[in-house]
C-alpha cells in the first residue's frame, strides 16, 4: 500500500491542457477523447503485458494526426505522466478513481464519460485478450463484467440488456467499477 498523498498527479493546468488537446483531436477525427485515453492507459497498465505508450498512440488516434509537433510532444509527455499517476493508484490497492461519474444516465445526446472511459479500457483488454484470459479466465471475466457493461460494446448480450432496463441496477453495476479495476489488476499481477 502506498501513501495516497505521494501519488504523482497531473496539475489542474496539465489535466486541462491534455483534455483540450484530446477533445480537439477527437472532434477533428474519430479519435479517443480524454476519458477513453484514460481508460485505455488504465487497461494497458492493468493488463499482464508491459506498458508501452506506442500502443496508446496506435489505438487512440488516426494515423493522420492533427497535432503540431509541439502538441504531439506535449500530449505524449502528459500521457506518460498520467500513466505514472494511474500506476500509483493501481499499486495503492485502493478503489480506483475513475475520472467520470459512475453512471450511464446522461441528459445530453453525447456519450457518457463513463462509457467512453470503459470503451478505452476494453480496447486495451481486446488488444491483449489472449494474455488477459491466459490464467484465471473466469475470475478475470467476472472482474471485467462491470466495465464490459459500461462500455456498451456488449449491449447485444441478454444479461447486459436486462441491466440496461433497470436504472438502479445499471448505476449499481457502474458503481462496482472502481473496485473491479483493482480486483482485475491484482488478479493479473499476483505472481
Automatic annotation (TrEMBL):
Alphabetical list of Gene3D superfamilies matching this protein: YgfB uncharacterised protein family UPF0149, PF03695
Pfam families on file: UPF0149 (PF03695)
Alphabetized NCBIfam families for the sequence: ygfB_yecA
Descriptive protein name: YecA family protein
Species: Bacterioplanoides pacificum
Top-level taxonomy: Bacteria, Pseudomonadati, Pseudomonadota, Gammaproteobacteria, Oceanospirillales
Amino acid at each position: 500500500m502506498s501513501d495516497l498523498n505521494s501519488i504523482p498527479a497531473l496539475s489542474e493546468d496539465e489535466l486541462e491542457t491534455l483534455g483540450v488537446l484530446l477533445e480537439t483531436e477527437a472532434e477533428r477525427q474519430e479519435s479517443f477523447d480524454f476519458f477513453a485515453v484514460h481508460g485505455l492507459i488504465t487497461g494497458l497498465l492493468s493488463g499482464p503485458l508491459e506498458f508501452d505508450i506506442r500502443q496508446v498512440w496506435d489505438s487512440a488516434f488516426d494515423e493522420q494526426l492533427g497535432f503540431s509537433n509541439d502538441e504531439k510532444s506535449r500530449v505524449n509527455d502528459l500521457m506518460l505522466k498520467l500513466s505514472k499517476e494511474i500506476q500509483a493508484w493501481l499499486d495503492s490497492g485502493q478503489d480506483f478513481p475513475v475520472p467520470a461519474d459512475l453512471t450511464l444516465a446522461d441528459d445530453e445526446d453525447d456519450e457518457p464519460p463513463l462509457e467512453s472511459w470503459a470503451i478505452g479500457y476494453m480496447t486495451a483488454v481486446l488488444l491483449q485478450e489472449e494474455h488477459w484470459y491466459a490464467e484465471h479466465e473466469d475470475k478475470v471475466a467476472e472482474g471485467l463484467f462491470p466495465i464490459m457493461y459500461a462500455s456498451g460494446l456488449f449491449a447485444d448480450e441478454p444479461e447486459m440488456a436486462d441491466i440496461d432496463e433497470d436504472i438502479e441496477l445499471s448505476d449499481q453495476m457502474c458503481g462496482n467499477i472502481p473496485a473491479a479495476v483493482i480486483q482485475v489488476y491484482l488478479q493479473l499481477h499476483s505472481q
